[in-house]
Amino acid sequence: MNPHSRRHFAPGVAHAALALSLAAAAAPTAAWAQEAAAGEGTAQSENTDQATLADDIVVTGTLVRGIAPPGTNVIGVTQADVTATGATTTAQLLQSVPQLGSFNNLQSPTGFGNQITSNRPNLRTLPGFNTSGGSTTLVLMDGHRLVGMGILSTSPDPDVIPPGAIERLEIVPDGGSAVYGSDAVAGVINFITMKEFDGVKVDGHYGFAKNYYQLDASATVGKKWDGGSAYVSYTYTEHDDLYGRDRDYVRQYPSETGFPGLTNLQCSPGNVRVGTSAYYGLPYTTATAAAALGRINQCDYSDDITFYPKEHRHSVLASVSQQLSDSLSFEIKGFYTTGAIDIVTGPYRVQQGQPQTITRTAANASIFDAHRVGTETSQSVFFQYGPLDAQTQTVDLDTWGFTPTFTADLGSGWQARVMGSYSRSDSKSILTNFNTTALANAISAGLFNPYDPGASNAAALAVINDSELYSRTKQDLADLRAVVDGELFQLPGGGVKVAVGAEIYNEKYHILTQDQVSRLSPTSGSAAVSLPNTLGVSTVIRPAIAPIAPIGLSRTVKSVFGELVVPIFGADNATTMLEELTLSVAGRYDHYSDVGSTFNPKFGLTYRPVDWLKFRAAYGKSFNAPSLADAPGTIVSNISFSARLPPAALLAANGGPLPNIRPGSVAAFVQGNAADIQPQKAKTLSLGFDVQPPFLPGFNFSTTFYKIDLKGVIRLPPTDAANVYGAFRSIVTFAGNQAGGSFSATDLANLLGSVSLVRNAPPANIADLYAIIDLRKRNLENFKTHGLDFSGSYDIDTSFGSINLAGNANYELSRKRQPAAGAPYSDEPNVSMFRLRGSVGAQVGNLFGQVVLNHTSGFKLSPAVGFNGTTITGQSYTTQTKVGDFNVFNLFFRYDLKGEGVASDLQLTLNVDNVFNTAPPVYRGDPIAAQYGYIGSLTLGRMVQFGISKKF
Description:
The protein has a domain at 11-194 and 210-247 and 307-345 and 393-430 and 473-511 and 552-630 and 678-716 and 779-951: TonB-dependent receptor, beta-barrel domain (Maltoporin, Chain A, Beta Barrel). Helix content is 7%, strand content 47%. A hairpin with a 4-residue loop joins β15 and β16. The longest helix has 14 residues, at 11-24. The protein starts with 10 loop residues before the first helix and ends with a strand.
């Protein structure tokens, strides 16, 4: 059996499952166990109110039962919100929260270096979340940590949680390391699943847009009995992929760098460069070269890539709870998710934007001479080969775990909770590729024709293409946490509450990565392959590749923590302008077996001058420990040589600070993980107020000011020339800085010896090495941000039912970064600063309707992007200085049948997303993370989705 075969759910079975769901149709998920814990309806409400909480409820962000986290706001997303969004995955659900970087965007698994990670959330859009192995947003399920997923990621993927099993979602957009430890820098997202379910429900959705579909089907079976309950919930989801050619807004624009005024030259047919400036469009021969001079073939790379990949998942969540005695209860939940993501990255190209240098040899003379235009002995050829979907990536994801919890009533209001969990994930990535060394050798041997790849030797093509980047990561997380809380004593303002606890958890991370390995033997390297060249001589066209040994890492974390809540004024001693005054302090000490120890405190204040107005404040410290995926060796250290050099304006000849470039110069780019990466540390502050005026029943409004000061951001340096040779110049070593004003052969030998893989040949003349750019992941920069959150809703009773107005917004006042120690802070460019989700809904009898506006503000581009002042194929281009706003309107309708029999507990839904088929605003700069023609916002276009649910 092929070792790379994947377990795919047969489409026929998938559609049959959906048909069964649509035929039987299920009821919506159970409502909140305590609806007041985070608001109702379709508003994403803030600020869980202490007065409304049941004594046994533990809200995210605090250790103490029955209270909201003092000083901190909580954003609650109810089951009604889940239904209204039409989300079929938790990633889609999170796209509706303005405080998250994925808001109003089409989120898909993200990564770097062709290594897809997972759908990780990013509160406050902090930097480095796509490139660091860990995350600054902590994801929990029922208060439990989850194992990380992905190849170079130790962050959990929320999509392992079936949306149908989610009872509510609590988001604390504030530092939480004093309670939870690592990762809770920007905040905590806690998915709270159903505690119990009785009966049977099935449901399904089918949505479609132009050249796209998505579907999901789920079934839940449960039973309650005296003192206990059990249920199992299963969900299947799948969606189609979208290519750049499927959406008009996905496209490449002419560039000012590389080949000014052009898109790309590596096309089919391709192009030939002779010398430094003479371009010939293929096909041509020596006899017709004059006519081909200046006739340049261009193509749009974005057409043949999937900007939204194909994906399918199976998810199961099971729960059993039992009251063991009057004072002891037990609950255990288990989950299992398996799925695959399929990505297409287009035809094979040597290196995007770079040609293959063809040197004339005796073996390739006939091919070369047919395209010679003079007496030259080498040419630069731009080409692509293979079918349009030649380069593909498949990511298989499997994870499972269980979370037992014992809760003991200790008497006198005291309670002990012991929470355990064990979870494991297995992620495999296979990126088809070609062997660059084999390609160069085959060209030299006359076995590959770069001018017409289809005319190449078939056996040589098979060897060149028998290559892939194979990666597999297995992760384990075992966690044990115990908390005791209760009331210490009474003050005039109420009971002083305390919670203390301890936690120990162990992480294991095992990775195997092999680059340019034979597809037939991914764990054992590749053998050399010889073929006879055109002279009949046996030539090694692919050298042997030794296997890279797997890496296994682990760490153990031991922690103690506590929280004290002191009510100075409360219901029993309230006075004028002092209805409530509550102080809290929390702290946690964590000891890591590999990166040392840390202590993080947090202080909170809640002040209520009258019962309908509350002020709150919180200050704390948080941290994110370096991920095991960020350790040296987990990424294959490598070096490549490229002509990506500084813009002319930065060179000394033009008055700039950088050394001049000699013809033929290249730069060396080193990649991997740097040694001794340290934790990211942050100070967080939040100030806010909540108002529910008695003279306006049904109205509430909240505002929160927040500030984050993050030190030692773990991330990859930028790779674009403007940043590399500009703000991040500290990562560059220039030849002029070396002894004698140039690199030496020893410098080059040491550089090559420091990496595991050399991707292409270094310059033959050491004098042509202009600079060494260190692109290794590290603690790269410091970052500051502050802003405002707004949230409100207004419920109005009417003669025909009710009207609901709701809104949730985030306005970033500032985002600044410090790219190197001692450098000044500067504004982070090209980021949207305002995000809003507003809705108007009405209930008329059994029908509920809602219109939603998702707004993402535009921003100025600094520096300006795009090619200026040229007309290409009849279209004139100018420099772009601003990205426009992105406004998307969605419609939602729900009809609840109240009949008997089949019509009982039957619900029909209709979602129309992006009603006006609005395209993201244009971005004409070089693509960022494969985003062609747009930046920061993405849409499927107008999509219609039908849903039906039924409970028995």
